[in-house]
Amino acid sequence: MSNTSDFLARIPFFYEPEFKAELQEHAKVMSFNKGDVIVRDGQYVKFLPIVIKGAIRVFQQKEDREFLLYYVKAEETCTMSLAAAYFNNKSTSHGVVTEPTEVLIFPAGLIDQWQLKYPSWNRYVMNIFRKRYDELISNFEVTVFEHIDVRVMEYLKSRARNEGSNSVHFSHQQLADELGTTRVVISRILKEFERQQKIKLYRGRIDML
């Protein structure tokens, strides 16, 4: 497992010695397994994570449907948790680990103090918010202007490229959750793609042809 000093030595964006000393004092590195819940909808945020390696899936859930917001990846923190912590509000989203993940954990009560004391923390937070804003606008445009079958195919291609394989591994329900639709819609689209010989369907796996 990494330790706090090892992680701080590798990151260029927190440069004040006093800030690094505070992180060294208050933060700790923790490991999580796939499926572990970092934060739940409706709970107060007591700590914030910065991902060292791995990923956290952040989503909202309404009845039986999930709406993906974003993934928190290496050197990032969770924007929804950050906003909730600033205003002492309850979280409005879930954060679930998607692969073995290490995070730097620190008390949420410190972040407003750091905002005033350390320019590097302020810049880091602003960059994270800007990145999430850009992602939100991009996702909104895709959702509004692209048909769902186009979104499904583009998502499959993107996953295949990222995994370096012609096969992607997830269920119809997982794909529906990623794209904010229903399993019935996804199954119908995938069967049509298979009929067109664009993909081959297996249990828990989709091969790109």
From TrEMBL:
A GO term, aspect molecular function: DNA binding
Cyclic nucleotide-binding domain segment(s): 16-69
SMART domains reported in the protein's UniProt record: HTH_CRP
Highest rank taxon of the organism: Bacteria
Transmembrane segments: none
Domain HTH crp-type: 146-209
Xref: Pfam families: cNMP_binding, HTH_Crp_2
UniProt entry keywords in alphabetical sequence: DNA-binding, Transcription, Transcription regulation
GO terms (BP aspect): regulation of DNA-templated transcription
Entry protein name: Crp/Fnr family transcriptional regulator
